Amino acid sequence: MAQPAANMVVNGDRLWDSLMEMAKIGPGVAGGNNRQTLTDADGEGRALFQKWCEEAGCTMGLDQMGNMFARREGTDPDALPVYVGSHLDTQPTGGKYDGVLGVLGGLEIIRTLNDLGIKTKHPIVVTNWTNEEGTRYAPAMLSSGVFAGVHTQDWAYAREDAEGKKFGDELERIGWKGDEEVGARKMHAFFELHIEQGPILEAEGVDIGVVTHGQGLSWTQVTVVGKDAHTGSTPMPMRRNAGLGMARILEAVDEIALSHAPHAVGAAGHIDVYPNSRNVIPGKVVFTVDFRSPELDVIRDMEVRLRAAAKEICDTLDLDVSFEKVGGFDPVAFDAGRVQAVRGAAERLGYSHRDIISGAGHDACWINQVAPTAMVMCPCVDGLSHNEAEEISKDWAKAGADVLFHAVVETAEIVE
Asked: Contact, 192 vs 86, CB < 8 A?
């Protein structure tokens, strides 16, 4: 398999300009982005991506989950395409790079191939997966999960946001529901470029993370029910304080995760308190516990211990508690051959690199079930992500995209 020459690199300035242009759509309040899935801003970002892809000579496919597929033809009509991409949706207080770097890095591959006049045997398809973040519609990686057969399409369409709006209805409303059957496409391989979303690469001064595994994830939604009452006139012994129950459960979550140090983690990021009034003792709280580990047995242990601890706490406080598993996936081992393609690309280009386990979930984790898959990571400042202050450097973006370019093009096979 012919490897790209070491002097074949992307246009880092063009990639950076594209990132900054996309960041103008769905601006946040503190320098980042709020381009949540299936909002008008999401639709606007999709339209800009399609415009850029068509200008680069690609044809755009769209499936019934709104997944976008920009195709550059190969020379062999029978060769399966090499897919590359990530997501354009953001957290409510998201950064300019999480997901977006992987989509626009894929587009930069197409643009660079055009600049260099290079043809590949396999087509190359740049993908934008719908609703990777899972903030507006749980679970995360929803549409890549449908593509991989993990979720049914009807179940995904029925997911509701906080206002009761259904995923399927909102997808149709913004005009990005396609006709193509979800999962019908066959892949030769899939690659995803992403910021690390952790501090390791920057702290060690390493250019590239070669992702060998992805942590497994478990989301358990916990509902604790007590009784609304006046904060001033209700005696302490007579309270059924759901907020207190949550506080003690979250302390247990911390202890459970720490018991599996150093790789296991746990916290609750999504919390709703009812009635959420200053002078009313909370009568109900709903929160989601996020446990992660690269070991499946550890995840299962944490889930079991969470339920036992929460029940004991709530029994003591005269509270009711219920649980719902609202998301999750098993730990992932990425394809050894595609991982080596990433590692070899970094070495060929002279970038420092190290193997790394992804602590976050990514669309690649589901696609790994249906195609040989690998990921490339670049550093981010202070490891900060899912925050409007998320930041990377232009050099980091270029290095990641260079490695992505080489790994994808090697897999797609240059036609001499």
From this structure: yes
In 10 A of CB 163, how many CB atoms? 7
Go through the chain and tell me how many residues it has.
Answer: 416
Q: Are 148 and 169 in contact (CB under 8 A)?
A: no
The single residue listed with the structure tokens 């043809």 is 119
E strand intervals along 310-389: 320-329, 332-333, 353-358, 373-378
Here the contacts of 309-317 (C-beta below 8 Å, separation 24 or greater) are: 309/249, 309/252, 309/256, 310/222, 310/224, 310/245, 310/249, 310/252, 313/245, 313/248, 313/249, 313/252, 314/224, 314/245, 314/249, 317/226, 317/240, 317/241, 317/244, 317/245, 317/248
pLDDT, tens only, 179-226 = 999 999 999 999 999 999 999 999 999 999 999 999 998 999 999 999
For 316-341, b where at least 16 C-beta lie within 10 A, e where not — what string? ebebebeeeeebbbebbebeeebbeb
Dist CA 91 CA 42 (whole Å) = 12
Secondary structure class of 249 (helix, strand, coil): helix
Distances from the Cα of 242 to the Cαs of 245, 261, 276, 342, in angstroms?
5, 29, 11, 49
pLDDT confidence band for 1 (50 / 70 / 90): low
Angstrom distances, CA of residue 296 to CA of 2, 38, 131, 307: 38, 32, 25, 17
- CA separation for the pair 87, 68 (Å, rounded): 10
Find the largest Cα–Cα distance for the chain: 82
Given CA atoms 121, 72, 176, 133 in this order, what sign does their dihedral have? positive
AA letter at 237: P
Taking the model in full, what pTM does it have? 0.85
Q: Classify burial at 60, counting beta carbons within 10 Å of its beta carbon; exposed 0-12, middle 13-18, buried 19 or more.
A: middle
Whether the bond between 139 and the residue before it is cis, its omega within 30 degrees of 0, is yes
pLDDT single digits (tens) 17-58: 999 999 999 999 999 999 999 999 999 999 999 999 999 999
Collapse the DSSP code of 364 into the 3-class scheme (helix H, G, I; strand E, B; otherwise coil) and give the result: helix
In this predicted structure, what is the pLDDT of residue 360? 87
